[in-house]
């Protein structure tokens, strides 16, 4: 009860700062804007205005939804390839004009979506080889990532659990959400860093620490209240942020079918984990929120150990930007790659959560969405202890 | 009730701030006098439990300074009183009451009572950042008393108060000092002179003298002098004695001095005051007050 009361005051201190509100408003505006930027703009064919992006997305949504629930079996794939071949032969300017473009798209788009999943690039693609081609691509990917035989065996076993033929669903909303998650994680990390960097440091800069440390509840209970405030704030903020961004994409692209395998989302087709889209989203949200919580713990630790909130803010912002450079670490640098992927400013993207690189302990192998949270829990426990020690020892 | 300081020592790098101080305090008002750097604030911070002594123990009725039960009986006004600028007065008091373990109902009643006592009840809804220095100091005094402390430590409580506020403060402390231990440090000698039951003189981290005003003053009894001297004598006397007062007169310079011997053949001994003692003890080697 006392802790809740103290948490209330911690929130009050946070809400009393004008920078807090400016930060939150700016951050959410930025995320919201980046989410619907795809809707803006126009497309010109042969120099003439043909349609708006919004019209095109609506055509896609309509086309994709028309094949929701269809099984990607031999019959569908053969039909898809036939239509796709027809579409390839249409000549822009002659067969495709600004007047008939959307109509043509409506007819062929469903098959274009399937062709994208199969990564068809030539006319003479063998539709029957859809799943075999995918297996070949997977093997090439796993070999380039220098996966061990045990890892490959594990991933193959996981892959075999995906129900075949796949059930198709137009789940572009979730694909877009995944694509935007990289920037969303970064923006939310920055928001958390700026809002939480004064949590402990403010007491030193305002000199209230002397009053606190000499008060009955000014030590363990205050530390507990501050840590719980930071964690609850990070959890609520990030969950609100991710759900709002997800809702935005669902409004734009439609709700699709959450029971379809996550592999029917473009960019996720070669991943081996046997999750439905719904489960994939839950795992993504859970991992993203966990990453936000770890960001919060890191910032609070810095705040407790540094003299002002400037230091923790700079450290936290650098930490949030670090994943921008994660792409330069090749998968073959296994250790560094796994470490960078687990970084809180990065963990939450499909590449990091559903990474093919696994953590081996004895005979057991663990995917990133299991071992990273365990690592986070251990790291958070150590950092919370360091934060408490830093706060108490600053005066002593 | 007894507060015991047992051979307390604190050193910062090469500087010994508090040097093996031992002292016992019973209910009453204790005035801590000392020059800047004498170790007063360090000693008070250790007594408030926010600075750990390198050596020695502090306990109140057997409760160690590091225990929660000790802090439950403590009220503290630090030299640099901290506050959240955007908090309203009443909210700030309620927060500190919560830190001190008061229930909400009790906190509300005590807050109202204390704000009334320090004359801040009409600004209880105002943000602290709008306060003058004196108002902030009064708020600091009020917060220190929220938990009705048995041990009240006030570091420079009268700093920033105008004369009227200081008199009010002195009267308030006098009333409170009957059933609790109050330790206050100040540079304003008259504050201590008026209200302290016991005076502690601190220099170079050690308690030089402790006792009632009368006991303390007996230390310099017969060593305070007044005289009228020619102007050319002033420099010589200022080098040798602690000059407490200087006044131009038509037949020379009137001086009040403290020293071990008669400073001038025509000088006459006078009754000592606490300010004389302060200047006598805290006069640095070769330091002149003129």
Automatic annotation (TrEMBL), chain A:
It comes from the Bacteria. Keywords: Membrane, Transmembrane, Transmembrane helix. The chain crosses the membrane at residues 20-39, 182-201, 222-245, 280-302, 309-329, 368-392. PANTHER family: INTEGRAL MEMBRANE PROTEIN-RELATED, MEMBRANE PROTEIN. This is ABC transporter permease. It comes from Murimonas intestini.
TrEMBL record, chain B:
Residues 3-229 form the ABC transporter domain. Keywords: ATP-binding, Nucleotide-binding, Transport. SUPFAM superfamilies: P-loop containing nucleoside triphosphate hydrolases. Pfam families: ABC_tran (PF00005). The keyword Nucleotide-binding applies. GO terms for molecular function: ATP binding; ATP hydrolysis activity. It comes from the Bacteria. Belongs to the ABC transporter superfamily. This is ABC-2 type transport system ATP-binding protein.
